[in-house]
């Protein structure tokens, strides 16, 4: 698999290519210039930082590739053909282009994710499929799960189970993709459509000070909640940059809230479907060892490997990259950005006798697991970001 190198576009390049000048960009637009990481095992990456400026613009068409409360969710298809899927609605090429733009912003800001995708794909010239995309939201003023979900529902995604995280004051809902033939050899955003996992902060359960800050910025945003997918694809906040003191207030109470304040609807993480790899890395334990051997730090909360009670869903993730964010009062601080996750879905017991070459995705464990997800959330926590690699 080949990965094209990303280059930030200058304002003149933007003008020549798409007739968009910097003056037409929303005032809340910000972009990040990545420092290209090395994936040479002799020169491993242990930490990545991206500097903030207004001169770079993530290439729009870049792609790396041409419940119930406290429940443990175990889902499978209603039939061997996966009949629970809804048909695809609307223009598929447009939908995939939006996913590609979300992915481009994500990769431009998170060099670890970009390097890991390239590294994993280079083994046996493998094609990478995404298990799911995940987003974070504020559950207030229409800025919660529904704001991001609407885009996916419009294109045939189906809401599935709700998951609750009382200690973190969060809830989440995941969505299964519609039925659509996968192009031969398709991978990444051009491969099987990913599940979508959208979480939201239960703002009403936060302190009055934190509520006031969140309501202030979602209020400033106006109708920005109607354009969540667009904001994600552009890499733009729908509200103005916050004060540094406001970010600190949220961080003291909820690192999730602080992350969402400065990252907005940006893709929180993409997840590699390990069992769809061809190499030995299809076993997530082998993949974890491979990732760490090459200098990347994995989220150790609850153990590097997060396993569902039934043993059929196994997940791990890197620690988030960091970005230098300039707040509205001029102060600049390193804040967590996004990370990349790995998921292996094992074959359901009723299909255990199927030959491996006959096993399809609908024969495997579906859904999500509260215990696993709770630990994966910690990939953006200060404790994980500042922890020294083993």
TrEMBL record:
Region forming the signal peptide: none
UniProt family annotation: Belongs to the 2-oxoadipate dioxygenase/decarboxylase family.
One annotated GO molecular function: dioxygenase activity
Reported cofactor(s): Fe(2+)
Name of the protein in question: 2-oxoadipate dioxygenase/decarboxylase
Key words, A-Z: Dioxygenase, Iron, Oxidoreductase
E.C. code: 1.13.11.93
Superkingdom: Eukaryota
């Amino acid at each position: 698999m080949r990965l094209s190198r990303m280059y930030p576009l200058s304002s003149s390049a933007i003008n020549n290519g798409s007739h968009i000048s910097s003056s037409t960009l929303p005032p809340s637009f910000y972009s990040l210039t990545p420092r290209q990481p090395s994936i040479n095992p002799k020169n491993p990456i242990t930490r990545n930082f991206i500097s903030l400026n207004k001169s770079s613009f993530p290439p729009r068409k870049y792609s790396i590739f041409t419940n119930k409360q406290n429940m443990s969710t175990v889902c499978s298809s209603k039939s061997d053909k996966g009949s629970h899927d809804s048909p695809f609605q609307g223009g598929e090429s447009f939908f995939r282009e939006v996913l590609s733009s979300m992915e481009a912003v994500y990769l431009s800001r998170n060099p670890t994710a970009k390097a890991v995708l390239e590294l994993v794909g280079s083994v046996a010239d493998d094609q990478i499929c995404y298990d799911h995309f995940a987003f974070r939201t504020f559950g207030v003023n229409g800025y919660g799960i529904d704001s991001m979900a609407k885009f996916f529902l419009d294109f045939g995604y189906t809401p599935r189970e709700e998951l609750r995280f009382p200690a973190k004051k969060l809830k989440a809902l995941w969505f299964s993709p519609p039925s659509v033939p996968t192009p031969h050899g398709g991978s990444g955003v051009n491969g099987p459509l990913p599940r979508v996992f959208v979480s939201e902060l239960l703002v009403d359960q936060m302190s009055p000070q934190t509520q006031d800050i969140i309501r202030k910025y979602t209020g400033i945003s106006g109708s920005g909640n109607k354009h969540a997918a667009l904001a994600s694809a552009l890499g733009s906040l729908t509200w103005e940059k916050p004060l540094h003191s406001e970010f600190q207030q949220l961080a003291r109470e909820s690192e999730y809230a602080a992350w969402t304040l400065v990252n907005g609807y940006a893709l929180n993480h993409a997840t590699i479907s390990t069992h769809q790899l061809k190499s030995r890395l299809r076993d997530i334990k082998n993949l974890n060892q491979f990732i760490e051997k090459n200098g990347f730090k994995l989220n150790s909360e609850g153990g590097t490997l997060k396993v569902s009670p039934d043993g059929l869903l196994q997940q791990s993730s890197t620690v988030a990259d960091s970005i230098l964010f300039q707040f509205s009062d001029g102060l600049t601080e390193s804040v967590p950005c996004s990370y990349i996750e790995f998921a292996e879905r094992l074959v359901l017991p009723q299909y255990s006798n199927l030959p491996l070459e006959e096993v399809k995705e609908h024969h495997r464990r579906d859904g999500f697991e509260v215990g696993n997800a709770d630990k994966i959330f910690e990939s953006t926590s200060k404790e994980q970001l500042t922890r020294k690699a083993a």
